[in-house]
Structure formats: structure tokens, C-alpha cells
From TrEMBL:
One of its GO terms (molecular function) is L-isoleucine transmembrane transporter activity. Belongs to the binding-protein-dependent transport system permease family. LivHM subfamily. It is a multi-pass membrane protein. It comes from Marinobacter nitratireducens. Pfam families: BPD_transp_2 (PF02653). This is High-affinity branched-chain amino acid transport system permease protein LivH. It is found in: Cell inner membrane. GO terms for biological process: D-alanine transmembrane transport; L-alanine transport; L-isoleucine import across plasma membrane. It comes from the Bacteria. The chain crosses the membrane at residues 20-38, 45-64, 70-90, 102-121, 154-174, 203-226. Its main location: membrane. GO terms for cellular component: plasma membrane.
Length: 307
């Protein structure tokens, strides 16, 4: 029974982190699915969303606002607005001017934007860790006292529910809305979409905005979950989310969700049964193993070259 509780605890922890990875990974996979490029500044946009949410929470506390749902709602809206604006700006500044050129040029441009955003936050907020208030506390305990007890916190439940809602809304948007259908058309053939009258520039910008908004949601959730943020907060999470997107199949939204969950669970199980020092080794080793046998990822489809 103790072994089962311990396994369940690691599974819950892994699904919690994996859900956040999935939210961030969607930004990578949507941009790649539309224009075939990797937005390496996406992790920094996630980090800026976390900082924006923290500033909003601090400001509301200074004004004397104490109702928790209102604080979380305003912080989430502020983070999504700022991150979405940043995503739109990154597309206009770092991608649109070099779109259509050799793929190495947009890649270097994105890396440069990533370094710029890191250093901008470093200069504006300092390099130290900043405490993020634990607004959602408490949870459930399972197991007998005096032995190992499995815990399911309200924060973890919040992450699960929020991720589920975001994924459902995104799926409905992609499948049923006019803009979502345009996104699918552009991802299949951007040239033909242009000929059919679709404003591909607007669709590409919308893709960056949607991915940035989801990253802002993850920034708020993981900021509260970990309890601190710093200017490198987005680099590691962005790298893990990119790994999750590749693992599930870059360009596939369900693949990004699946890859994030698998990566989160593998990290948690490694930390729980081996050591936290080996979690990155196991995660990236799993990625290499899957790509050796299925280069397109778990749910990715091979690209068909049009002649």
C-alpha cells in the first residue's frame, strides 16, 4: 500500500508539471505547424507572463484587494495581454522580415530575441529569485498517519482543471472557428491559402498570439506552484516544452499535449525512484530513443514534399 501511494504521488507530481509543459509546448508546435520555424523566444514570453502576473498580484495587494478569484482573474488577464502583445511583437520584429529566407536566418533571429528578452528582464527586475505568493494553499491527504501520505494540493487540482479548459477551448477554436480553419489551411499549404484570399500574415500573427497567451497561463500556474521566479525561469521550461513538442510530434497539437505529460511523468518518476540529478538524463534519453525509432515523434506525420 505504501508503494502504491508513493507511485501515485509521483504520478500526480509528473502530471502537474507535464500539464504546464503541454501548455508551453503548444506555442512551439503551432508556430512550427504554420511556418515551419521554431520560436526559441517562446520560453522568455512564458517568463514575462509570470513576471506580469506577479506585478499584477503585488499591485492588487497594495490597493487592498483581497478576494482571491478577482486577484487571479486580473493577474491572468494582465499576463495574457502582455504576453500576447510580446508574441505579436516577436513575430513582427524577428520573423516577418526574414520569412522566406534560409531557415538558419530566422533561427538566429529568434535566438537573438530570446537573449534580448532575458537580459531586458534581468536589467529591469534583477537577477535574484523573486518570491511568488502561494495564493492557493491546502489540499487532500491520503494514507495513514505515521506513514507515507499521498497529497493532492488544491494548486495541483487548479493546474489540471485550467489545462483541461485551455486544451478544450483551443481544440474547439481550431476545429470550429473561421480563424481556426484558416490556421489549418495555412499549415497545409501557405501558398494555396494566399491564392484563396486568406490573409496569411494575420493568421501567422494570430498563431504567435495564441501560443503566447497559453504560455502566460502556464507562467502564472507554475509561478504559484514553485513559489519563485527569475530571469532564467523561462529558459529551462522553454527547453523542456520544446522537447515535449518534439517528443509528441512537432506540428501536432495533440502530440504536444501527450509529449508534455510523458516528459513530466518521466521527470517525476526519475526524481522519486532514482535522483533528481538524473531526471534530465532520462527525459532527453527518452527523446533520443523515440526519435531513433519514430523520427516524426509519437503523433507526428512525415512531411510530404509537394512537386
Amino acid at each position: 500500500m505504501q508503494d502504491l501511494l508513493y507511485f501515485s504521488q509521483q504520478l500526480i507530481n509528473g502530471l502537474t508539471i507535464g500539464s504546464a509543459y503541454a501548455l508551453i509546448a503548444i506555442g512551439y508546435t503551432m508556430v512550427y505547424g504554420i511556418i515551419g520555424m521554431i520560436n526559441f523566444a517562446h520560453g522568455e514570453i512564458y517568463m514575462i507572463g509570470a513576471y506580469t502576473a506577479l506585478l499584477a498580484i503585488t499591485g492588487l495587494a497594495t490597493l487592498g484587494v483581497t478576494w482571491l478569484p478577482l486577484i487571479l482573474l486580473i493577474a491572468l488577464i494582465c499576463a495574457m495581454i502582455v504576453s500576447s502583445s510580446m508574441g505579436w511583437a516577436v513575430e513582427r520584429v524577428a520573423y516577418r522580415p526574414v520569412r522566406g529566407r534560409h531557415r538558419l536566418i530566422p533561427l538566429i533571429s529568434a535566438i537573438g530575441m530570446s537573449i534580448f528578452l532575458q537580459n531586458y528582464v534581468h536589467l529591469a527586475q534583477g537577477s535574484r529569485n523573486i518570491g511568488f505568493p502561494a495564493l492557493i494553499e491546502g489540499g487532500f491527504q491520503f494514507g495513514s498517519s505515521g506513514a507515507f501520505q499521498m497529497s493532492l494540493s488544491y494548486m495541483q487540482i487548479t493546474i489540471f482543471i485550467t489545462t483541461l479548459i485551455c486544451m478544450t477551448l483551443l481544440s474547439l477554436f481550431i476545429s470550429r472557428s473561421r480563424t481556426g480553419r484558416a490556421c489549418r489551411a495555412v499549415s497545409q499549404d501557405i501558398g494555396m491559402a494566399n491564392l484563396l484570399g486568406i490573409d496569411t500574415n494575420r493568421i501567422i500573427s494570430a498563431t504567435f498570439v495564441i501560443g503566447a497567451a497559453l504560455a502566460a497561463v502556464a507562467g502564472l500556474l507554475l509561478g504559484m506552484y514553485y513559489g519563485s521566479i527569475d530571469p532564467l525561469f523561462g529558459f529551462i521550461a522553454g527547453l523542456k516544452a520544446f522537447t515535449a513538442a518534439v517528443l509528441g510530434g512537432i506540428g501536432s497539437i495533440p502530440g504536444a499535449m501527450l509529449g508534455g505529460l510523458i516528459l513530466g511523468v518521466s521527470e517525476s518518476m526519475t526524481s522519486g525512484y532514482l535522483s533528481g540529478e538524473y531526471k534530465d538524463v532520462v527525459s532527453f534519453g527518452l527523446l533520443i530513443l523515440i526519435l531513433l525509432f519514430k523520427p516524426t515523434g509519437l503523433l507526428g506525420k512525415p512531411e510530404v514534399e509537394k512537386i
